[in-house]
Amino acid sequence: MSASERPLAVVTGASSGIGLELAKVFVEHGFDLVVAAAENDVVHDVARELAAGGARVDPVRADLATFEGNEDLVAVVEGVGRPVDALAVNAGIGIGGDFVDDSDLRAHLRVVDLNISSAVHLAKRLVPAMVERGAGRVLFTSSIAATAPGPFHSVYAASKAFLASFSQSLREELRDSGVTVTALMPGPTDTDFFRRAGMTDTKVATGPKDDPADVARAGFKALMDGDDHVVAGSLRNKAQAAAGRLLPDPVKARAMRGMTEPGSG
Ligand SMILES: NC(=O)c1ccc[n+]([C@@H]2O[C@H](COP(=O)([O-])OP(=O)(O)OC[C@H]3O[C@@H](n4cnc5c(N)ncnc54)[C@H](OP(=O)(O)O)[C@@H]3O)[C@@H](O)[C@H]2O)c1
């Protein structure tokens, strides 16, 4: 397969965790990549490793919590000069703790900027060309946190609920366009996420976790199958997501408290 015949995927948050594993799966399946993350050296190192097997991998250092950072990524994608076959909007951060007494407003707004605004920005800038071409696959990394209220990580859980809703809405709008939209809904996964979110003393962070490689494979399969969503990982996650459809929100909120309250771990 010549370089120009290889499909192209864009993966955000590809320097670690689920995004890195997604990038590896794309390469295994013959994709070239544009990979984005916030830390310069890491994303460049990762790109070199991903390219070792012959794929073209363009790294982008961009703070996707900013408008300019998203535009920088779009500019690199456009500079590659090839259609985007798959877009994995995966970069995300959490923030744990007591909303009123123990957290910083700017940190909460940064969760909104990255988890929500960047997803809207990249979808608005990159999906129209897919629609015009009549082909493309879009993956949003949501979470099973989207299926219940999330006390002590309230902004994060709401941001993931936004992504689940946005993903389904866009999917329906694009029903006859040739472009599919899929939500990846992992449960607790063994990445740097909980440390970065300041949640290491919670039950959810100290409990069992899934392998990010398994989560990424489930996401890739659902994306390629054109599924609307996939609850990745263990049966426990699938049970939680199913219960989320049945239980009243106040009941779910109380149950989640036991998992996410600081000191619960
Ligand atoms: N781990 C879980 O339990 C879990 C469960 C459900 C859903 N998720 C979701 O999975 C996604 C990936 O998280 P993860 O668990 O793999 O965590 P992770 O290992 O911390 O990876 C987060 C990725 O996002 C990037 N990122 C963070 N801030 C950024 C910014 N401002 N601009 C650009 N990139 C940025 C990071 O790059 P840098 O290192 O360069 O900042 C990194 O590549 C997130 O959307 C998260 O909400 C995680």
Kindly describe this structure.
This protein is α/β, with parallel strands linked by helices and 265 residues long. The chain has one domain: NAD(P)-binding Rossmann-like Domain (Rossmann fold, 3-Layer(aba) Sandwich). Helices cover 50% and strands 14% of the residues. The chain has helices at 17-28, 40-50, 67-80, 105-133, 154-173, 193-196, 203-206, 212-225, 235-246, 249-260; strands at 8-12, 32-37, 57-61, 86-89, 136-141, 179-185, 229-231. Strands 3-2-1-4-5-6-7 form a seven-stranded parallel β-sheet, sandwiched between helices. β4 (86-89), α4 and β5 (136-141) form a beta-alpha-beta unit. α3 (67-80) runs parallel beside α4 (105-133). Bound molecules: NADP nicotinamide-adenine-dinucleotide phosphate. NADP nicotinamide-adenine-dinucleotide phosphate binds at residues 13-19, 36-39, 42, 62-65, 90-93, 114, 141, 143, 186, 188-189, 191-193, 196, 212.
List keywords for this structure.
7-stranded parallel beta sheet; binds NADP nicotinamide-adenine-dinucleotide phosphate; globular; 265 residues; single chain; alpha/beta; 14% strand
CATH-defined architecture: 3-Layer(aba) Sandwich
Query: Shape from CA axes?
Result: globular
Please tally the helical runs, counting DSSP H or I stretches of 4 or more residues.
10
Tell me about the largest β-sheet.
Answer: 7 strands, parallel
In CATH, the topology is named Rossmann fold
Tell me the number of structural domains.
1
Order of helices and strands: EHEHEHEHEHEHHHEHH
Radius of gyration: 18 Å
Distance between the termini: 50 Å
- Oligomerization: single chain
In which order are the strands of the major sheet placed?
3-2-1-4-5-6-7
Q: In CATH, what is the homologous superfamily?
A: NAD(P)-binding Rossmann-like Domain
Query: Quick check: average pLDDT?
Result: 96
Please mark out the parts with pLDDT under 50 across 5 or more consecutive residues, or reply none: none
User: What percent of residues are in strands?
Assistant: 5-15%
The kinds of small molecule bound in this structure are: NADP nicotinamide-adenine-dinucleotide phosphate
- Kindly state the number of beta strands: 7
Helix amount, in percent? 40-55%
CATH class: Alpha Beta
Structural class: alpha/beta
